[in-house]
Amino acid sequence: MTLSLSDPITLPCGALIPNRLAKAAMTEGLATPDGVPTPELERLYGLWSDGGAGMLLSGNIQIDRDHLERPGNVVIDREPDAAMHAALSSWAKVATRNGNHFWAQISHAGRQTMKMINPHPKAPSPLKLGLPGGQFGEPVALEKDEIVEIVRRFAQCAVAVQAAGFTGVQVHAAHGYLLSQFLSPRSNQRSDEYGGSLENRARLLMDTVAAIRTAVGREFPISVKLNSADFQKGGFDFADSLQVVEWLEKAGVDLIEISGGTYEQPKLLGVQGLEAEEPQAVAQSTQQREAYFVDFALAMRDKVSVPLMVTGGFRQKQAMQQALSSGAADVIGLGRPMCVMTDAPAQLLAGLGELPRYEQQLALFPEWLAFLSKINALKVMATFAVQYWYYAQIDRLGRTGKAEPALSVFQASKDVTALQKELVKARSR
Question: Distance (Å, rounded) from C-alpha 110 to C-alpha 340?
Fold first, then answer.
């Protein structure tokens, strides 16, 4: 049977998603300094709910306020009080106003916590992030009792969003955040039951999924975002990923989103890191030119039947349709285009053939200064600056209801940097 983007999908838990398009998780930075959802977040997700996607994923909701992915994250690291519950409920109500799902992406940044938030973040092992610029501090290895507490907090967070009206959760185990750090033998050099073999490195993730399932029941969707590979030498590779997907399927996960890369190797952005990309033993097709991870998902399909979501690089409707028809994907994730075109899903469903490729016009340095990107520190700066352009669009959508496509990368970077400093300053008051 040929699938269409407009077809619904029923997940193993019984939940029905009304179509095959999802707004992928993108960091918002619009919470209060203390991590409470705001009217700006409601305005943003109201626009996205109106935009036609069958499911919206939130940006990182952190389970530890000392380990944010960035200032302005929503934080649930304790049982919500009445005010927090009300704020979460109001956000969820707006974000589901058109009958779509709204899932909370729950996470812990680990060593990818910026130094201005925590100079000594917790991690599997005391191995500093390999990026120039001094934005990230010296991590401290987690004790076993702290790991057990992290599992408890993930479950507590899931219960809180379920009670507030969110319709599912996604555990973030990709992109170099804490659970991803545990999975990688490069960042996890522990010698206890959480390190060494893949089974041990996956223990925290599997314990987390089990604890959440016990807490939320069988009918509440649980998703996991997982790297197809870290694309780093000595890191989490595709063979590891495939085995973890098999374990997750047996654990009763309802949807697995396939992504890849870390801050050090930002494959998720379609960008080459400072070191050479580690090749993976996966056959490449013409689809990979359009979508970064579709071939990895297709290779997984031979081993598992759990629904898969693929995000990263999709712009052409034909490529999305091909991914569905080939079995590589059950759900198509859309990210950066929706930072400007908030109704991208509705437009695709109405017949639009291709989404805008904003990334092709974005650069920190003008063409005559492009050679500066050959300097490692400046290359990292330029990569983050382009990402900040998308952050700035999300910020403007939340604050004004309108994106600003003509904004320069330089100005966007200035605006986001200033906002993050102000949020960190307000946290310390």
Answer: 30
Question: Are 413 and 388 contacting, i.e. CB atoms less than 8 angstroms apart?
Answer: yes
> Which residue, chain included where needed, has tokens 């399932």?
213
Question: Which pair of tokens denotes residue 147?
Answer: 């790991």
Between 311 and 197, name the one with better pLDDT.
Answer: 197
pTM of the model: 0.92
d(CA 379, CA 360): 17
More confident residue, 240 or 279: 240
Q: How far apart are CA 319 and CA 288, in angstroms?
A: 10
SS (H, E, C) the chain: CCCCCCCCEECCCCCEECCCEEECCCCCCCCCCCCCCCHHHHHHHHHHHCCCCCEEEEEEEECCCCCCCCCCCEECCCCCCHHHHHHHHHHHHHHCCCCCEEEEEEECCHHHCECCCCCCCEECCCCCCCCCCCCECCCEECCHHHHHHHHHHHHHHHHHHHHHCCCEEEEEECCCCHHHHHHCCCCCCCCCCCCCCHHHHCHHHHHHHHHHHHHHCCCCCEEEEEECCCCCCCCCCHHHHHHHHHHHHHCCCCEEEEECCCCCCCHHHCCCCCCCCCCCCCCCCHHHHCCCCHHHHHHHCCCCCCCEEEECCCCEHHHHHHHHHHCCCCEEEECHHHHCCCCHHHHHHCCCCECCCHHHHCCCCCHHHHHHHHCHHHHHHHHHHHHHHHHHHHHHHHHHCCCCCCCCHHHHHHHHHHHHHHHHHHHCC
The closest alpha carbon to 362, from 336, 338, 342, 344, belongs to 336
Token pair for residue 327? 């079995």
Tell me how far apart the alpha carbons of residues 44 and 28 are, in angstroms, rounded to a whole number: 9
Task: Give 191-211 pLDDT, tens digit per residue.
Answer: 999 999 999 999 999 999 999
